[in-house]
């Protein structure tokens, strides 16, 4: 298979068979003059070397057993354990299905009726199973394919609750890895639905689930089915946060699905080229790295028609397309080759992409630190508070993203005066401390595309911003090792501020949760309450983007999120013409330690329209109905306490108990409304809106007097 198609992917190629050591195979068998006994010993040695080189053979599998396996993680250089359950060996069966369970899963174990391997990845503590949890799951799959008799066309992804939504996210990133997805009591959102065009999904959900309301699953099912994706929803009357009854029918459906490695048509959307592979097509390069790229492709006879959007280079796996002789892109028809590139508005056959001296830019900010590459956290020993920086580094080392619970393992931590040249060459670095506190930051910052004079920062053509009582974050390739990244995380605060920063340093790494990669800043200046003063992004050449509006400050009322929430709700109401739009209020406390409100707060003294233009988030919404009596209950419970906001403002005295009121709300708000132990009536997909649609409502309205 062409290496150009599979670069940046977690695949079995990352676990090559171990080569033979020492002499060649022929020399190992024997040399002239050797006796028969010596030749026989050499033959036995050769057999042993073959076994070592090939890894576990099918005859060595521990059948009908539960045990622990390990893969070697590049992220921290340590072995990562995961659980394996193997089936009884079945005569005549050479390859077996693999079921990957992210959390919970069906109550069916490998047995004669369903002989399959089951694995449970261990790094499952990151919300949404993103960033390092994604890497972990894909490494487990690659290890099992490499070392066990796994059928590559029968790899299945299942999970319950958070594991169900995680399964949908993971499958949307790597749709060509799986034969089917079985999410139980969850569906999640904020992932590209078109990627399920060739990937069957079967949701199972109780209609009295008040932990994860069935409304979300109903809406996601409607969206998937409207796109033509093979999707089923089985609801269980009266069931809560579990799937009752026997799970054997679920497994029977699952094992009836087989992956087609070369479908005749495909659709794919992604936020980075590293997630750009779909079966026989790999997106290699974006035109704009801060917009999602997508492609539709169909094969008819011997012609593949490609419809790319925001793509300047792609590759084809021609070994999967033996009948394709040419491709059609717009008004062009070109011979079938592996690589294509857009040049001056016309597509050309291209050479195999060569590795660049500097790593290619990918949007995502701190998310790029948690993709499985070696990561080292370096704390400063200068200044007056080295112990506090060391403690912050140790806390940061326990997270593979900013939220949820710490991981069961840690990244390595080292002091700035102990960092070696070899470590800088091998690892991405998080540098904790200002230039006065971290000597590595002091050495590298003058060589990065920013200017720091005292506590005043300048970048690109933007006006300088003061750093007093602020935390600066900056991502850039290491000047001496440009295939590696450095992330400068510098709190310019007093001792009390440093203590506050050290309580949750992981929350000052925007993008590290893996959500909304195209919007994440490469430079961010924020205060200890996460009010943002500056957001900037690089283009794909690692040069600062010059976005219009740097002379237009954000109105002062947007210093908190409430006015921005009202702008969102007014936009939603104009889209759907319902009775009320709802949003999280300032007193909302989140759920499970997660703040689901995606809105940011801004520092009006520094934040401008140019900063806001870095936001490309697409807010997904749903519609539903409640009676007047239910709406009164909702408002008395959450509106009166400012945990919910509405537009227009709900006046209880105007509501008719028996009337139906249509609501428009962001997708994740269904979790909060489910706590009242009632579902929304007739839930439907709502229109999504982009951040840029809010610009007229924020920057083009006069400040109230």
TrEMBL record:
- Would you say which domain of life the source belongs to? Bacteria
Single GO MF descriptor: hydrolase activity
Q: Which residues form a coiled coil?
A: none
Q: Recite the UniProt keywords alphabetically.
A: Hydrolase, Signal
Q: What is this protein called?
A: Alpha/beta hydrolase family protein
**Taxonomic lineage of the native organism:** Bacteria, Pseudomonadati, Planctomycetota, Planctomycetia, Pirellulales
